[in-house]
Amino acid sequence: MEPLWDALLVPLWNRALPLLVWLVGLTAVFVPLEILFAAHPPAPRGRQWAVNLAYYFLNSLIAATLVAMPLSVLTVTLHDLLPARWLAVVADWPLWLRLIAGLIVSETGYYWGHRLSHQIPWLWRFHAIHHSASSLDYLVNSRAHPLDMVFSRLCALTPLYALGLGTPVHLEGGLVPVVLSILATAWGFFVHANLNWRFGPLEWLVSTPAFHHWHHTRSGPHDRNFSSTLPGLDLLFGTLHLPAEFPTDYGISSSMPDSLIDQVLYPLAPELTTGQVAEPQLESTRLSDS
Ligand SMILES: [Zn+2]
Ligand SMILES: [Zn+2]
Q: Cα(155) to centroid of ligand 2, in Å?
C-alpha cells in the first residue's frame, strides 16, 4: 500500500506549488502598485484577506476540478451536435479571429450568467459571498463560492463550445478557451485591485478597476457593470455605469459569516451559519438611469 504522503499529499502539493508561485508573482506585481496608485487608503490585511487567500487555493484546486467534468461532457456532446461544415468554416479562421470571436461569445455568456446571479435569489446566495468584501484589492478576485465560480465558468465556456470555437478540431482550436480563461483570470485580479488607473476614452472598450469597483458598490446604484473585460456589453444591454469618481463604499447590506467554512456552507444551509439570508439588491426596474 502506498504511504499516505504519496497517495494524498504529494499530488496535492504538486498542484499547490504552481499556485503558490502564481500567488507570489501576483503579490509582487499588485502590492507595490496598490501602494503607489491606491484608489482608496489600503484596508488592513485582516480576516477578510486571510479568507480571500484561502479561497485562492480552494477555488484553484476545487472549482477547476468541479468544472472539468461538465466541461468535458459539453465539449464532446456539442462537438458531435455541430454540423461538420460549420466546424470546417471555424477551423479555417485564423487564430486571431477565433480569439476575438471567442472573447465576445464567452463574455456574452459570462455577462448573462453574472446578471442572473444577481437576479435569481438562490444564485445570489452563492454570488453574495463575492460581493460581501467590504474593501477591494487584487485578491478579492478569488473570493467566491466554488459553485458560483463553476457556474460563471460554465456560462462563459458553454457558448464557446456551442458555436464550435472551443472544440478541439486541432491544437489551435483547443487553445482558444485556454488562452481566454487565462486572460480573463489575470484581468480579474487587475479589475479588483485598489488601483486608481483609468483608460480615458478606451474605458468603454476594456474594463478597468473603476468599472468593476462600481459593480461592488454597497450603496448603489446596483445591477451595473456585469462584464468581465468588455464594458461594451454593458453599454449594449443598458447596464453601464462609469462616472469619473470611484465608489466610496463596498459590500452588501445583509450580514455574511466571516469564516471560510461558514461561507461555503451559507448558500446551502444558511440556518446553520451566523449569516442573514441575503436578498438580491435588485434595481432591474431602474436600469435606464445608467
Ligand atoms: Zn456580481
Ligand atoms: Zn468582483
A: 16
